[in-house]
């Protein structure tokens, strides 16, 4: 699998323009002094970035609520190219004159000196920078999607026919496809069957489709010219199930920029989980979930949302509790217990009316139908 483009430009770090120059030596706030940022009680005074770190994990070291990261990590509007965070860099927790926490970046030896008060040009490869969330999980999901958005269903290349007048195809068979563009000869694409509709439980609108991985195909000949006869020729190199006309073709490595930072939505984004990858029924940490809210509802990559579970409906048997007789309990009033926060997830891809997100924490078992709310 080709590498995802690890572009993790985290709010240009040409920070510390003036007030942070003096903040480096400022003392911590006095005991009992309250700041607007929820620092973790054991927040380190400094942290050296490690290989494999993610921005979410680093934010969690400094903050009890990592989506407040922008409050202490400021954007310098004068810098056009964002500064990235690399393994070996040091992040220092400092305080300004008002007692507000700030993060100062000091470059590791491999990447130069500490950040100065002027823009700097990065010469190190971008793919060495840390990403917001584990990119391997996102790569695996996006290359062999178990959910296809309504937008992708309309734009993805598709199989028009199989060679030798076959109805179904398997490994070694030729397929002809329309819409394959920007792919080099010899490159591989994944074949995905469009399955059942995925509807918004609130409106009934079709938001996407279940995606079923069918196999892999190698591009043998790109389409020439335009028109209905401009078809690309591919050969199936592996099969997980039969390939059919209408199946979609997905690059084995889709570009998903991870240049976002954790932050809360600007407006309420109440919705629910409508699907989870791999057909599992119990959702846990680092599972990819699909929610019925997207760009139209204000969601964007980097948005952090809380997952809530509705309380169970139970019978109120009165003060007698379980000692109430069966006849009385049959006529007892039903009450719904309060909803409880069950986890947190971050959006990494937003479509018009749905989004993909990665579960970052799960305090209990999560399920399709659980609610999402602003954190």
Plain-language structure description:
- With 375 residues, the chain is mainly β.
- The chain folds into 3 domains: 19-131, no CATH class; 145-251, Thrombin, subunit H, CATH 2.40.10; 271-373, Thrombin, subunit H (Beta Barrel), CATH 2.40.10.
- Helix content is 10%, strand content 30%.
- It has helices at residues 19-23, 55-62, 69-72, 135-143, 150-155, 326-330, and strands at 46-48, 90-95, 101-106, 147-149, 158-162, 174-178, 188-199, 206-221, 232-239, 248-251, 271-276, 288-291, 304-309, 313-316, 333-336, 340-350, 355-362, 371-373.
- Strands 4, 5, 6, 7, 8, 9 and 10 form a 7-stranded antiparallel beta sheet that branches. The protein has a 6-stranded antiparallel β-barrel with strand order 11-12-17-16-13-18.
- It is flat.
Low-confidence stretches: 1-27, 29-34, 75-82, 113-126
Averaging pLDDT over every residue, what do you get? Answer: 79
Order of helices and strands: HEHHEEHEHEEEEEEEEEEHEEEE
Q: Outline, from the CA principal axes?
A: flat
Structural class: mainly beta
Strand content: 25-35%
Rg value = 25 Å
Number of E-state strands: 18
Helices and strands, with pairings:
Blueprint: H1 19-23, E1 46-48, H2 55-62, H3 69-72, E2 90-95, E3 101-106, H4 135-143, E4 147-149, H5 150-155, E5 158-162, E6 174-178, E7 188-199, E8 206-221, E9 232-239, E10 248-251, E11 271-276, E12 288-291, E13 304-309, E14 313-316, H6 326-330, E15 333-336, E16 340-350, E17 355-362, E18 371-373
Antiparallel strand pairs: 1-2, 2-3, 4-8, 5-6, 6-9, 7-8, 7-10, 8-9, 11-12, 11-18, 12-17, 13-16, 13-18, 14-15, 16-17
């Amino acid at each position: 699998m080709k590498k995802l483009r690890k572009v993790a430009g985290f709010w240009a770090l040409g920070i510390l323009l003036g007030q942070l120059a003096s903040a480096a030596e400022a003392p911590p706030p006095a005991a009992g002094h309250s700041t607007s940022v929820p620092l973790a009680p054991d927040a380190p005074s400094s942290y050296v970035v490690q290989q494999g770190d993610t921005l979410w994990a680093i934010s969690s070291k400094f903050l009890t609520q990592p989506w407040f990261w922008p409050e202490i990590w400021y954007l310098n509007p004068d810098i056009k190219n964002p500064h990235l965070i690399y393994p070996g860099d040091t992040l220092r927790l400092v305080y300004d004159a008002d007692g507000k926490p700030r993060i100062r970046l000091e470059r590791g030896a491999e990447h130069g000196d500490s950040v100065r008060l002027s823009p700097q040009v990065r010469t190190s490869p971008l793919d060495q920078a840390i990403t917001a969330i584990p990119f391997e999980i996102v790569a695996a999901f996006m290359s062999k999607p178990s959910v296809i958005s309504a937008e992708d269903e309309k734009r993805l290349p598709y199989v028009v026919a199989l060679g030798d007048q076959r109805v179904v195809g398997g490994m070694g068979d030729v397929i002809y496809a329309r819409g394959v563009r920007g792919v080099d000869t010899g490159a591989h694409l994944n074949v995905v069957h469009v399955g059942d509709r995925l509807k918004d439980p609130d409106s009934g609108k079709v938001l996407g489709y279940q995606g079923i991985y069918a196999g892999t195909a190698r591009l043998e000949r790109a389409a020439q010219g335009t028109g209905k006869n401009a078809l690309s020729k591919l050969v199936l190199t592996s099969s997980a199930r039969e390939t059919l006309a209408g199946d979609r073709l997905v690059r084995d490595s889709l570009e998903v920029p991870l240049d976002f930072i954790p932050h809360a939505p600007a407006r309420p984004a109440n919705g629910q989980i409508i699907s989870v990858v791999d057909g599992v029924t119990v959702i846990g940490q680092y599972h990819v979930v699909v929610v019925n809210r997207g760009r139209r509802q204000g969601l964007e990559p980097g948005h952090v949302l809380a997952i809530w579970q509705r309380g169970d409906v139970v019978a109120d048997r009165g003060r007698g509790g379980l000692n109430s007789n069966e006849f009385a309990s049959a006529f007892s009033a039903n009450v719904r217990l309060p909803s409880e926060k069950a986890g947190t997830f971050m959006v990494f891809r937003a479509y018009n009316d749905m989004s993909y997100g990665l579960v970052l924490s799960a305090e209990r078992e999560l399920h399709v139908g659980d609610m999402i709310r602003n954190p």
